[in-house]
Amino acid sequence: MTGSLTNPSTQQLQAALTRHHVTLADQFLPPLCRYCELLWDWNARINLTRHTSFDDFVTRDVIDSLRLSSHIPDGQTVLDVGSGGGVPGIILAVTRPTLTVSLAESVGKKARALTDITRRMKLALPVHAARAEDVLKQQRFDVLTVRAVAPLRKLLFWFQRRTSRFDQLLLIKGPRWVAEREEAAAEGLLDRASVQVVDQYATPGHDHESVILSVRFSADAAD
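RESULT FIELD:
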């Protein structure tokens, strides 16, 4: 697959972006097409994504990633937790070159797929075949990004002992986030954490809105 903007796949991606009123600089289209090609090839072997058309890729993966991206300042270090097929981590790495992005994926075969995809895309993107909590024992990050990994109560439980190793969690959540917050509160997991809705948006073809939650822990929630 070439990087040309006249490549049929690149044109198909641009058409999907246009249909769904998403704007991306031309320079990002070839690497995102290459990502789709590699992701979908791996997906035929192991389950990495349900989004195997350019329309699905745009309406879920790209929109989610761009909305999340708008809440991360330039120059920050980012760990994508439970990266799976690489969303939002790989899309952030492509479209936000000022960020330093790493991927954490504890499922070995998925980590191997991510390693292969990033290598073939020539992205200097570390892939940690480990749980994010273990990665945080060795490295510190400004932001942890999370999509479709676990309920809020589990995320808070996992990371409450690593709060000195990151500043903020940014979570992409669906309409159940309110119930998840209530579950977390009932278990006392919000006593030292604040959860704020920083974005709310519709995605084409879905009758509910997605939200981006910012989670910060109080200073006394030390490791």
